[in-house]
Amino acid sequence: MQTHPAKRIEILIEAPLARRLTDALDAGGAPGYTILPVLGGNGQSGRWSREGQVSRAGGLVCVTVVLDAALADQVLDRAFAVVEPHIGIVSMTDCEVVRPARFGGADG
Fold it and tell me: Biological process GO annotation list (predicted)?
């Protein structure tokens, strides 16, 4: 099975901003994304957990985008414009995909 290089962008952001972020991803040309709830963590502000929260509105979500490297910078710029003034983490890593056409790349 042949793999093809791609980029994986992961964005942790406050749940109420998820729609604004996904609109920015769409506008930047992201071929798709996945949104998952973040259950807890530990960082600059110390350990925290979603446990005991009355609503999901106060929690974080993780938005993951896998895309062709040629699209990465424009999508990342749009995403960071949403995240920058808020609580959030943005990371980008190299990855490999099996079906590049599903991620905005040429069909291999």
Answer: regulation of nitrogen utilization
